[in-house]
Amino acid sequence: MPRSVSKHVGNIRCMKRNDHAYPADELMPLTCRGRVRGLEPSRGDIDDALGKFSLTLIDTLDTLALLNKTVEFEEAVRRVVADVRLDNDIVVSVFETNIRVLGGLLGGHSMAVMLKESGRMVWYQDELLHMAKDLGLRLLPAFNTSSGLPYPRVNLRYGVRGPETRTGTETDTCTACAGTIILEFAALSRFTGDPTFEAHARRALDFLWEKRQRHSNLVGTTINIHSGEWVRRDSGVGAGIDSYYEYLMKAYILLGDDRFLQRFNTHYASIMKYISQPPLLLDVHIHKPLLPARTWMDSLLAFFPGLQVLKGDIQPAIETHEMLYQVTKKHNFLPEAFTTDFRVHWAQHPLRPEFAESTYFLYKATRDPYYLEVGRTILENLNRFARVPCGFAAMKDVRTGSHEDRMDSFFLAEMFKYLFLLFAEEEDLHFNVEDYVFTTEAHLLPLSLSTASNSQAGEELDDSNFEWTCPNTRLLFPDPAFPRNLREPIKSAVDNSCPRPTTHREPGMGRPPLRAQDFMANNPEHLELLRRMGVSLIHLKDGRVQLVQHATQAVSAVAAEDGMRFMQEMMELSSQQQKEQLPPRAVQIVSHPFFGRVVLTAGPAQFGMDLSKSSSGVRGFVTVAEPYKGCSELSNGEIVAGRIALLQRGQCMFAEKARHIQKAGAIGGIVIDDNEGSSSDTAPLFQMAGDGRNTDDVTLPLLFLFHKEGNILLEALKENREVEVLLSDKARDRGERLSKTVRRHEYEKKCYYVRKVVHVASSTFFPF
Which UniProt keyword terms apply here (predicted)? Predict the structure, then answer.
C-alpha cells in the first residue's frame, strides 16, 4: 500500500510544472489555467488569499522536500527567489498570508537548511528567510491596534492606513484569524533574532485569553479588534475558532512555554464539558454554554481529533473521527457542513485536508490498520471523483459529484503531506518528522527553535486541572477490540439516521409533491406549494433568486420533508447544469463606427450552439424582439428572421426564450439582464441553464449580457439604424473580416461614436 500511495502522491510533479498556471497563485484545474486575482470574476473573501505571489508554489515547497523531490524542490526555491515579489499593491488576508505564504517560506527555509547541512543546495544563503522577514514586516502594520489584535486585511505595499491602502476600516476579525499567528511569527523571530514578530503574536494571544468568557472559559467566533467586545458569541471548534486552540497547544510544543499549555487545557476542559457531545461537536453560546447555538457542524472541525491525539485524549478522538468517516462514506467527501442527523447542510467540498490530518495522527497514536483503510478511502475518492486532467477539482456538490474550477493551495500543502505520511514506511522518509511541528497549513518548523526555559514571570501556573502531555506515538490500546468497540455504535448511528417516516400525506395537498424540474418562479400555484413546504423565494440584488427552507415553517412534517427533497432536487438540477464551467463568451460590435473595437463580456448558455467549436462564430444584425421578454410567440417574427434577437431576462426560462426566437428564424439571441446596474465588472460569470428537459432542439447560440453591457448595445442601436455584432468564444482581431465598405466610412464620424462608447464603458473598450 505505501508504494501505491507514493506513486499517486508523486504525481504532484506534473502539477508543479508551469504548463498551465505558473506564476499564478492557484491552478484552475477544469480550464487548465492560472487564477490571477483581478483577471477572474471575484469570489469575495476567498480571493483575499491571493496576492500575486505564486501562492501555490510557496505553499508547496516543503511538500516537495518531504516527498524527497529534492531536484524539484531546489528548482522551486530558485523560482521563488527569482520571480516572486512581495511589494504588490494588493489587499490580502493577514491570516491566510501568514499561514500559507509566511509559513511556506519558513517551511521551505527549514528544508533548505536541512538539505544544505547534508551537502545539497550549498548555494542557499537564507534567501527564503530574507523573503519571510520582508513579508513579516509587511504584515506588521495590521497589528497597530489598541488591543494588539490584527486587522483582518493589509495592503502589502501600503499597510492599513490611508486611502491608498483600501483597507483598515474593518472593526471585526475572527478568533482564529487573530490567534493563529504565534507559530510563524515566533519562528521568524527566532530564525532572524528579531523579537518584534513574536512579541506581536503573543500580545494578540494574551488579549484573546483575557477576553474569554470567565464563567465558561470559552471564546466567541468574532471579536471587535478595537473594543474587544465579542461580535459573534457562538463558540465551537470549527470555522472561526479552530486553529486558535491548535496554536495554543502547538505553541507549547514548539516554544516550550508552559503558559500556552495551561491556557489550552483550560479551554479544552470547557470544550469537553459544553461543546463535545460524543461523537458530535456542537456550537454553544459562550454566556449560556448549555444552550446549543446551531444544529449543524462544519467540516473544519475535522482537525479536532488530531489535536486530541496531541493532547493525549484518544477515546473521544476515535469517536468523533469515526462519525466523520461514516459521513464521508455516505457522500464520498466530507460536506462543508452537515446536520446532527448527518444530512448535507452545505454541499461543497473544497478538498479540505483536516480529516486526512486527523486520520494520520490517529494512526500514529494507535497503529491501528483501520486508519490505513480510512486513508485508502480518502485516496481512492480523490482519484475517482476529484481528479481531472490538469489536477484535482473541488467538489461543488458532494451529492451530485459536480466540480468547481478551484484547487486551493492547501490541497498540495496539506493533503499530499498527510496522505504520504500516513502510508510512508521508515525508508520513505529521509528525515525524522518528529523533529518538527506541523503548522495549521502543515508547514514544518523545527523543534530546535524551542528554548530550554521560556516561561515568563507573572501569573502563577495552576497545574491541578491538566496533564503535561506531548504527542504520543505509542500503541495506547493493547486490546485491538477496544477502538473497534468504540466505532461500531457510531457507524450504526450514522447508517440508520433519519429513515423516511411512513406517514400519510397531509390532507389537502392531495397531489404528488412539486418537482424541481417542473418549478416556475412566476407560477403562483408553485409559489404556494413552496410556502406550504416551508421554502421561501428570495430575489437577490444581482437578479438571481435564492431558495431557503425552514422546516419549522412547513404546514406539516411530511410537507417539510417534501421541501427538503425539493431543495435537494433543485441542487442536483443546478449541479447537473453546471458540471462543466464554461468560459465567458464575447459580443463584438463589428459595424460602423465600432469596427470590432468594442467587445462585451457575455455569459454562455448550457444549451444551444457551442461557439467554442465554431471558427467563425455567428455574425448578424441585432433586433429587439417583441415581446421583449420573449416568453411567447414573437409578433415581429418577420423582422427577427435572419437576425440576432435582443431579449430581456425574466418571466420564463432561458430555453423557452431561445425556442421562440428560433421559431421566428433568428440566427442567435442575446438576453439582457433586467437587474439595473448589474455588470460583468462586479458580478461573477452568469451561465444560462436549461429548463431541466432535453434542449437538443435549440440549435442557435444564446448569450447573456449584464445590464451595463446590454445598455451599451441598446444605446448603439438607438444611435445607428443597423448594428452588426459577432457572437464568438473570444474577440476576433479588430482588423479581421471587416468589409471594405465599413472601412471607407468617414474618420470623423467614427471618432465621434467611438468616444461616446468609451465614455459609457471604458473598461470594455479596446484602443486603436
Answer: Calcium, Endoplasmic reticulum, Glycoprotein, Glycosidase, Hydrolase, Metal-binding, Signal, Unfolded protein response
